[in-house]
Design brief:
By secondary structure, the chain is of the alpha+beta class. It has 11 helices and 4 strands.
């Protein structure tokens, strides 16, 4: 690096640059403006965006619906993080951390706010008794890999993705640092999948749903345009698994919900019924 940076004695937030994504965040939490969240007719109200973290939950909901569980019907409203929707008083009331996704469960006598993608997956899995083994080693392994995903993905998204794809300028040190960690994570996953059909074993679980939107999309060339840079094809077991997961109907449907970018046939800003997804996917070439 040619420019040497010396930290100040006291950090000060400098949001005066031209990077849109760098200027969204603030060291202070809480609502920045008053606005109620919209609400639909179903028991589950999802407020999200079709990023990898958002895809986890919509894939889970569509997988439940694919099983014929009508009680899992949901309304999904777009939270445009580029326009700071996540800082409305309504959204902060559901998730004080101002991150997507956030879910309101109205299926019981009292509304339940659920935030953090892994927490939502567990909440839905336990409510409907699906995609999470009830006991024993299989349950423990599912949680092992679910929490692995939660701890690892920030290195891929907030670390590698930020410096490789979104930072104002390419910098060798941070890109190398995070590329090395992402490749190490891919190697961990590849070795696990060498001896297992799914991530946690022989069953498809919420661990797969949590990991696929990040690492599956990465090795399929759908994340950060970094497939060649990271030589993702060398992780053959991850590629095999990623393609298998993508072939699932629930994944194909869930991955487009709350998506406002990409091809026309994979964009669905809001979802209120199965017909909404059917219409968008009908445009698929």
């Amino acid at each position: 690096m040619t420019n040497k940076y010396t930290p100040a004695k006291v950090w000060v937030n400098n949001a005066s640059g031209g990077n849109k994504w760098a200027n969204i965040n603030s060291p202070e939490s809480g609502a920045r403006f008053d606005s109620d969240l919209p609400a639909g007719e179903h028991a589950f109200q999802l407020y999200s965006l079709g990023t990898p973290n958002g895809q986890k939950v919509t894939i889970m909901l569509e997988e439940l619906l694919a099983l014929g569980i009508k009680e899992a019907e949901y309304d999904a409203f777009l939270i445009n993080i580029g326009e700071s929707d996540q800082f409305s008083s309504g959204f902060v009331g559901v998730n004080p951390n101002s991150k997507i996704p956030a879910l309101v469960d109205r299926s019981g006598a009292q509304e339940v706010n659920v935030f953090e993608s892994a927490s939502i997956l567990v909440h839905l899995a336990e409510k409907f008794e699906q995609f999470l083994p009830k006991s024993g080693n299989a349950r423990t392994q599912t949680f092992n890999w679910l929490f692995w995903a939660q701890g690892s993905a920030p290195f891929l998204g907030g670390g590698f993705g930020h410096f490789y794809a979104y930072a104002d300028e390419k910098q060798e040190y941070p890109i190398n640092r995070f590329a090395m960690e992402v490749k190490r994570q891919l190697d961990v996953l590849d070795k696990q999948l060498a001896n297992n059909q799914y991530v946690a074993g022989d069953e498809y679980t919420i661990a797969d749903m949590a990991i696929w939107p990040w690492y599956g999309n990465l090795v399929l060339g759908n994340l950060y345009d970094a497939a060649e840079f990271l030589q993702v094809e060398t992780y053959s077991n991850v590629v095999r698994w990623a393609k298998m997961i993508l072939s699932r109907e629930g994944v194909q449907r869930g991955r487009i919900v709350n998506r406002s970018f990409g091809e026309e046939w994979e964009q669905l800003a809001e979802r209120h019924s199965a017909a909404d997804i059917d219409l968008v996917l009908s445009k698929r070439p």
